User: Fold this.
Amino acid sequence: MPTFRRFARDRAAVVALAVLLVVAVACSIGGPVASTLLHHNGEDLFPYAVNDNLRPVGPWTRVPALNQAKILPDSTLAPPPKGAKRTLFVLGADSNVGRDEFIRVLDSGKASLEIGIGGVLIAILVGLPLGAIAGYFGRWFDAIVSRLTELVMAFPLILLLVLVSVRLRPTLEPISIQHVLPPGVLLVALMIGLFTSFYPLRLVRAQMLTLKRAEFVEAERMIGASNWRIVVRHLIPHLVPTLLVWGAVAAGTNILLEVGLSFIGAGVPITTPTWGSMLVTTWGTIYSPHPYNAQAFTPWLTIVPTLAIMISVVALNQAAEGARRALAPRET
Amino acid sequence: MTRVGAFIVRRIFASIFTVLAMIALTFVIFWAIPSSPASFLYPFAQHLYPYQIHRANHVFGLDRPKIVQFADYVWHLARGDLGRQWDGSHVNADQSVTQVPISSYLFADLRITLSLLIGGAVLVLLIALPLGALTARYRNSIGDRAVGFLTLAAICTHPMVVGLILRTVFGDNLKWLPDSGYCTFIKHPVAGPVAGSFFGSTAGCGGGPWPWFQHLILPWISFALLFLALYTRMSRASVLEVMHEDFVRTARAKGASESRVVGIHVLPNAGIRILTMIGMEIGTAIGIAVYIEAAYNLGGLASLAVREFAGGSLDLPVILAIVTMITLVVIVGNLIVDLVYVLVDPRVGGATMRARRSLTEPAVVG
Assistant:
């Protein structure tokens, strides 16, 4: 297959794909593996991982492995008992409750990637049929869909997301599958998927408009193929490359949208670790921002989730770019 | 009438029609949404009795025929009156109702958001275009690669995080600039909180161009960074594309210097494409403004919108006013960009050169 060979020769694209695989593996099994190796998990609270100014410990610190501590009358912590076992915090502690930032960033990745990819799948599931019908059959359906698309896309996406997700929250937020789908992920993925389905819809519609005049479609029609057969067997396979490229980019955008929703307080509940909710743990939502406190300020709590997001989104974008180059070598 | 003149007239009429259609459509949609006005009139009621619901409907004028309500709404809208909010209204002893007019704070908030958007857009155009041209001129140099990497990093960081980092470093830590709040452009005598901003406090700020500028530098930079990255990449691509056009080859053949070719022939043409993109992205920009306004506590229309939209019970008049105002900004913005476009490039009366963001260009998160 020349397409795969072209992709394999594209160094940036191969590196991006490799990074993507590493991120995916790290986020899906990295959390449990790290918990086993370090003998604590991302939800365990360590009072000794926070100093008296409520500043979490920095990266690569050994912390007394105690989940509770006595508080002295002057409201400081009693020194840990002699000979207490210590446990390693690779990236330091996450907030004033003292959880392991490293394990949390891995656990968070799972939910964030689920939202990114789930949102894309839902968007394609909704956008593909609507776009195919609008583009292939056209007429009044196309007119309605096109006007609606323009209307919705001109309005700030985040406001629509907030408006609807707040209302569906009581019903959809509790839905979860233990260890696979944390609470709130389905709600956010569904909301993002529905409101971004306009993008694949437009892509599919535009391609359908050109494809339906192609000679092979005419030939199909001459041998008596039904419209359904032409669309499903012959036209939709042509859309796979476009949707693949769009999907990779959109997965990255969705991860960023999740961050935004968390900041607004309309995303996953703060108990579900995602990269967005980790940033919110540090900064607070826009309604209750945490005031700046020079003594407790900890830059790595912003840097770690931001880097995780940046690495995944850049890798997704570069992989998509590589795929596009491999699929359509003549356009640059 | 010239072709350009005809296009301008047609475009203006089309915009007016869109505005009217939008006003009608939003009115229909919003009054179809289930709402409970009585819960605003009786905020402490555990349970709403039918007479209370009836009373609230009468007090807010909702028991009139829909067509009368619509005519009333349009009549007030035409005079710049956006109606009165349900929240915080109460019935006085003489049975009259006191309600907060929405216009009293919405226009102040709109000014804040527009200050942010316009200042940010100027910053983007001033930097993105030359930077894109330079990186296109020195393609594949170290500088080009560095800019390419930095812009990608900026696109892949959330604007709220960018805002919070800049605010913490330059506002809280180094204390070079104010870390939050908005300051009005026009001096006002009262140095107290100004009505209208939900998040921002303008306490202790008397207004004036210089304080206004100081308060907005960081928000502008944070807001511009994302679009700067996008447009630098795009202007690099358009410059590369325009470089191969015939008129550039002709200019070279005439013996024009490299800087003249780029400055006179390539840049304006690449700039036109950027301009059209900006027109199409005003809605997205307002979405980004949500985060920037929140990060710097500016208040503003975007913050107001998100606050109202996320509320448990919907204050429909306010939401209607916000949606109308945002769509109006989008439509008018598009109109202005289109008019500038046709004046700069009279070749087209339409869409021949309209830039499209390529498929793999990362979308923005507004």
